[in-house]
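Project standup — Tuesday

K.O.: blocked on the structure for the chain from last sprint. Re-posting the sequence here as requested.
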Amino acid sequence: MTISPLGRPVDRVDGRLKVTGAAKYAADNALDRMVHGYLLLSTVGRGTIRAMDVAAAERSPGVLAVYTPFHPLKLFAAGGFGGPPWLPLQDREVRHYGHIIGLVVAETFETARDAAALVRVDYDVRPATVSFTDGIPNAVPPQGGPGGGEPPVLDVLADGVPSIDAALAAAEVRVSVSFSQPIENHNAMEPHASVAVWRDERMTVYSGTQGATGHARGIAGALGIDAARVHVISPHVGGGFGNKAATWTHDLVSAAAARALGRPVKTVLTREQTFTVTGHRSAVAQTVALGARRDGTLVALKHEGISSIGITGFTPENGPFTTGRVLYRTENMHISQKVVPLDLPAATFMRAPGEASGSFALETAMDELAVALRMDPVRLRLRNYATVLPGTERPWSSKHLDECYQLGAQRFGWHRRSPTPRATPDGDWLLGMGMATAIYPANRSDQTVVRVRLRPDGTASVATATADLGTGMWTVLAIMGADSLGIPLSRVKPELGDSLLPPSAGAFGSQSTATVAPAIRAAAASAIKALIDLAVRDERSPFHGLDPAAVRYDHGDLVAADRRLSFGRLLGQLNSAGVEASERGTGGDPERYEFHSFGAHFCEMAVHRRTGEPRVRRLTTVADAGQIVNLKAARSQMVGGAIFGIGQALFEGSSVEVPSGRWANANLADYLLAVNADIPPIDVHFLNHPDTPFNPVGVRGIGELGNVGVAAAIGNAIYNATGIRVRDLPITLDKLLD
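H.V.: unblocked you, prediction finished:
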């Protein structure tokens, strides 16, 4: 009997391709007669293009075309989900610094780049609004609510309580603190790239995208053609973190240029260009006020947030709603979100949008309340443990966060923590411990279809147009196929990253595994039923004429009475090309349950007493994320999320110059990221409680959960080490010099 790989540590099925360099990413595609595009970007923050002198660029040897608003490419509709609501090169407006104002196409990348440097642009410059700090006093409610959903203000008040401020004033212990976080950029290892081919009135695009189905629709709309005539190929994505979910404007101009020239066009963004042509995490300012009884019971929680938005008007950073709204039980709550519109590129999804920033504010404030109460931070959280969504009677489908706290504290050695700051020296270093809660919605999509096909060679294909951006989806498809069919992993052939495959909502929002896992189960069951129906219907079959109910499927074989035959041999005997079925997965009722994943982070920090240098010594994370599909990849996802949180806490931040709107550190030298030497041992443990009310497999997403709360755990540990509370990220050593 084949042992199911579900929940075991499984090597990536695409691992050999990646470590040998055989995995083909978008820019790796080299096609016959291919030419290269290089973007021209604006050098002012706001204005109108008066004139462009492209004569020298057009005369350069090897240049095929220079497209500008004065010589535009033909485009019809904006690029769809998440991208800018305007079309490039269709007008002379400059909406932000680094806005696309042209595309040079030449025989080589170097020729295109050098010719682009010869273009001269005259602007009518207008003042650009680029300072988030200056705009905070005039922040406004977001259009359509945070993320386009709920109203921008939520109040839950106990009977007889007139306002949240009255509830806070009546509390026995209060804290009220403010926090800030700068703009962050994704900086995926693979820069955004497109290779577009127009042939036989069809467009093929090789692009690193988190959703091939939606990407094809966006490009089709921009080109004014039917989506069935666009083929997007994206088998491997070198990181995305949300920034490859949208169809950005460089994809559109590349495709339009390929159609205009009749030759394949490759456009690869430089690192600097990725900062302005694509999106970023908003700057965020937050205030959290907590009121409690002396026993630690929360009686009032006020969480207000302000985030920057760029040219799209999109509001992904709504931390008060994604953290303050859901984490702790309280009688009185006020949640609100405002935005500051800026003349900047699009604010977009970045790993755990809202939760990452919101948790830093809320979980730091909870630590400050614990200090004010002289209470252990874990005990404070357990005292205010919520079993239903605060303000409602709706329970979570599955919640074991209390077990995360208890097991995490045990694994980490939390009992050794001194509550007194600066009480644990280690030579020239001061040591401290901190902790924080992680929470992220358990998402899934009804728009994703998975096809399972049983083949005469004894293998099975599992296919859907979802993406693998390093998350391990190739292997998830293989594991779930093997588990659902009861066959060895080696006999399952996953297919993804192609818009011609069954449609997928895309890989973002930690929804992919929870979406495809139940769909694979359902499709496998339907494929098995089709196999049995074929076996009893075909006269050449040894099962011909039997009642289908008398034939059962057992680990790749059909069995009835004294007959047993593998599906591969059966299909071969019948000269069948195979049987298949396509299904969508099912999920729980959001009117009945609230769906989230949970976790707890415990961190030890060392801060040098003379230089202020902060070092993460060790980190323990315990996660309640439902049924784990691949233990090895799941751990990798949580470690990656923790590294993201370390970057948020200690390093990352984009600097936008005022008043020009120029991005001052749009490179990997000046935009600081955590490197190997900054990362300590990270202990990850999963509770592995299947959440079957959420979906039949009990799987929840984890890709973003590991990021949430890490920055707060680090900041809380730094306070415990030094007595210095830093509320403005990143926590750089200058802020720790006493």
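K.O.: great, moving the ticket to review. The radius of gyration is 27 Å. The longest helix spans residues 512-537.
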